[in-house]
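batch job 7 of whatever, protein = Zinc finger protein 462
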Amino acid sequence: STPYQCTICQSEYNNLHGLLTHYGKKHPGMKVKAADFAQNIDINPGAVYKCRHCPYINTRIHGVLTHYQKRHPLVKVTAEDFVHDVEQSNDIAQNGIEETSRI
């Protein structure tokens, strides 16, 4: 498998430069830098993204986008739509995330 993967659309790259270039072109709203990937850490650790049409939440933008495709197929959304919708997961009971994050 390739070592670098976009956390939004799951595109894969063989090197960090390719991934950072991808973010700049495809997801300009995401502020990423090489250091974000040094430890393979989440770009926005502790973030929670919410569906705007039902109680669904997920800790990854990709999870919310997949949810929209399955549950709200007529609503067109992109990763950039959620960049500013971040809430911190410590504001939400941890067991609540498990219950509502099933697609």
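notes: The chain has three helices and five strands.
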